[in-house]
Amino acid sequence: MTVDARGFASRHLAACALARSAGEIARRRFLNRASFTVDFKGPQDFLTEVDGEIERFLAERLGEAFPEDGFLGEEQGKGRAAKPGAPTWVVDPIDGTANFARGVAPFCVSIAAVRDREVEVGVIYDPLADELFAARRGGGATVNDAPLRAGTTRDLAVAAIEVAWSQRAPEASLRLIGRVAATGAAPMHIGTAALALAYVAAGRRDGYAAIYLNAWDCLAGVALVSEAGGYVSDFLAGDGLARGGPIVACAPGLKEVLLATAQIEGLTP
Fold first, then answer.
1. Which residues contact 204 (CB under 8 A, 6 or more apart)?
2. Residue 42: enclosing H or E segment and its boundaries?
3. Whole-angstrom Cα distance, residue 117 to residue 119?
4. For residue 124, which phi and psi values (nearest 5 degrees)?
């Protein structure tokens, strides 16, 4: 069965409701730090049992509502495969786990539905700010039901650019930060790729650049930026869904200059 526009509309509504429910779990546990322990998957790669709890909750609810759909989560790895014509849900139960574990904001729940290299649905919920960012391909992007539009900045010298730090490429990340700063732009890092991309869609940031992200870090944000009229590189080109890769997103007037400044392999102006 091939999912049609009506099917994606229902998935959009379901993702919004589930993101709020998952976010409430995260908020409640965040406010009671004694309720969870902190571990590490690697250097600066935080993990709490809350990540797994929320991912299981989302996997179960999405599986009940849409049994034909696939599921890919940060904690469960490959998850389950989609049936022909159905999308795969790509979920980060807590994006910004380092912030969450340290008791600081922001962090968020990120949910995307992908089919045939297209992000059909993207939803990001910040439970502390109570902001729900949502997009459906061809249907625009919103925050708490208000329309989103990417910024109009055309000059990096007055821009605020989120620059991701990658443990996979620390020296390259430092060089990327330096190149952005050399333009006069303000390099920023809030600790959650999903919300950083949502902020680009909302015009709160002028751009975002990362040498490497996983699919669950960014696909909901890809939908938001695209539907808000911004530029976002093709993250799903090649094998981005399975293997991850680089990304640049920005106000449309910064596309060429930010790509040229970032100098990220595989992304050209």
1. none
2. strand 38-42
3. 7
4. -130, 130
Whether 233 contacts 246, CB under 8 Å: yes
Other beta carbons less than 10 A from residue 238's beta carbon: 12
Q: How far apart are CA 233 and CA 212, in angstroms?
A: 13
User: For residues 213 and 164, is the Cβ–Cβ distance under 8 A?
Assistant: yes
Answer for the pair 140, 121: CB distance below 8 angstroms, yes or no.
no
For residue 95, the one-letter residue type is: D
Q: Which domains does the chain carry?
A: 5-147 (3.30.540.10), 156-262 (3.40.190.80)
Instruction: Report the alpha-carbon distance of residue 135 to residue 205 in Å, rounded.
Output: 18
The answer to whether the Cα torsion of 16, 17, 21, 22 is positive or negative is negative
Q: Please give the distance of CA 44 from its chain centroid, rounded to a whole number.
A: 19
Paired residues of 40 in beta bridges: 46
- Three-state secondary structure call for residue 247: strand
* Entry pTM: 0.95
Distances in whole angstroms, Cα of residue 160 to Cα of each of 76, 188, 189, 206, 213: 34, 7, 10, 5, 20
pLDDT, tens only, 30-72: 999 888 887 766 665 566 889 899 999 999 999 999 999 999 9
Q: Quick one: how many helices (H) and strands (E) in the chain?
A: 8, 15
Encoding tokens for residue 106? 């922001």
What is the C-alpha separation between 76 and 70, in angstroms, rounded? Answer: 12
DSSP 8-state code for residue 57: H
